[in-house]
Amino acid sequence: MKLTIKDVEHVAKLARLKFDGKEIEELTSQLDSIISYIEKMNELDTSQVEPTSHVIDMKNVFRPDEVGVSLPREDTLKNAPVQENGFFKVPKIIE
Prior knowledge:
It is a single chain. The chain has a two-stranded antiparallel ribbon with strand order 1-2. It has helices at 5-14, 21-41, 73-77, and strands spanning 83-84, 87-88. By secondary structure, the chain is mostly helical. β1 and β2 (87-88) form a beta hairpin.
């Protein structure tokens, strides 16, 4: 598939981008090279390659959201800079 200047102008219009004539010609050449390379990659036989969603093997690192044992309140507030009535006291940030 050969990319034309008209194609690039159409995409630029959709993206609300403005280019002068020289830029359109340059972009057309660059995008045409990219598409040609992708077409070349499509010629590869990948029938024996298992589909993947990521390049590297990824595992879910999230743990189940389960209620567990909490620290006692006294231990939690032990290093609090300021506490009041058994809670952390923080500076007011909303006026």
